[in-house]
Amino acid sequence: MLALVIPYYKYDFFEATLHSLASQTNKQFHVYIGDDASTIPPNDLLLKYQGQFSFSYHRFPTNLGGISLVQQWDRCLELVENETWVQILGDDDTLAPNAVASFYEHLEAIEKEKCAVIRFATQVINENDVPISVIYQHPQLETAIDFLIRKFKGGTRSSLSEYIFKKEKVDSIKFKDFPLAWSTDTLAVIEFSESRNIYTINEVLVFFRRSGKNITSQSDSIEKNTAWFQFYYYVLSKYGKKYPNFLIDSLFDKLEKTQFNNKKTPFRWIKLFWLYLTFAKYSRFFSLSSKIKKSIQ
Closest by alpha carbon to 133, among 202, 207, 212? Predict the structure, then answer.
């Protein structure tokens, strides 16, 4: 069975999320709502949708998302009982009415391919539910490496709400706790798929909301910069030896750019130079050293 986990904090668009769940043509799912000590509890909305789909609501006594979004996800995931598959849905995102039905229609093929990561097509919407992007579709079967290549080339987007994961993979591998959970979802796709294909259901849309009130809508920050560095460094150091050279170079390009956007981090320079030695990227080492000298002259 499918568990839909909602780490709840923002009331603003939560009714749209609940309405999309009540509109599902297949109700074989249970929703777990973990309230992160929100300032506006959703009691009135839960009462309104009581009986329209199966859900559990738990209000946590302290706010954790302000410290670590990933830790808030983790404690919400602990609410899940015995479901095999889990989808973490943003409290302002919505599902097309055929999402759950399509998941079950594809389940036999998913299990035949032994996929642990499932993905829906997506479209970005604004605060008025108006689409502000194209529809992003994907190959039905795609490796995590190919996904990364497309993403780095600007050929796709990705957000946590569009994925369904095998629960046992989430439990055993865990989400990595990057600041603001920025790029945590991308790494989860890489790690939870475990060298097997990502399976895409393209006839279903997840609507990702860009309202100005979520982290994606916010401008770049030191925290986002730190998260990007941790992500690129982690992927290179753990998986880079398995990647083709052009992808390694792309990761180095992005890591260097991230580092130059926050130069006053000596420990990060050490980690970057260590990667140069690990991958025998000596020309990059000397080139970057030259750039550093010029920047401080």
Answer: 207
Q: Say if CB 166 and CB 116 are below 8 A apart.
A: yes
| CATH match of 2-217 with 3.40.50.300 | no
Q: Which residues are within 8 A (CB) of 108 and not within 5 positions of it... i.e. 6 or more apart?
A: none
Phi-psi region of 195 (alpha: psi -120 to 50; beta: other; left: phi over 0): left
Residue pair 271/277 in contact by the 8 Å Cβ criterion: no
Q: pLDDT digit string (tens) for 50-66? A: 999 999 999 999 999 99
Taking the chain, what is the end-to-end CA distance rounded to the nearest angstrom?
Answer: 61
> In terms of DSSP bridges, do strands 163-166 and 85-88 run parallel, antiparallel, or are they unpaired?
antiparallel
Question: Any residues with CB less than 8 A from the CB of 39 and at least 6 apart, and which?
Answer: none
Q: Round to whole Å and give the CA distance between 90 and 111.
A: 26
Q: Is 74 in contact with 5 (CB distance < 8 Å)? A: no
- Is 80 exceeded by the pLDDT of residue 220? no
pTM: 0.92
Q: What is the pLDDT of residues 66-80, one digit of tens each?
A: 999 999 999 999 999
Q: Name the residue type at position 14.
A: F
The pLDDT of residue 148 is above 80:
yes
Contacts of 148 (CB under 8 A, 6+ apart): 186, 190, 235, 247
CA distances for 255 relative to 22, 271, 281, angstroms: 43, 11, 13
Cα Rg for the chain, rounded, in angstroms? 20
* The pLDDT value given to residue 81: 96
Q: Where are the alpha helices (DSSP H) in 37-157?
A: 43-49, 69-77, 99-112, 144-152
Kindly list the domain boundaries of the chain, sorted by start residue: 2-217, 222-296
Nearest to 1 by CA among 146, 104, 150: 104
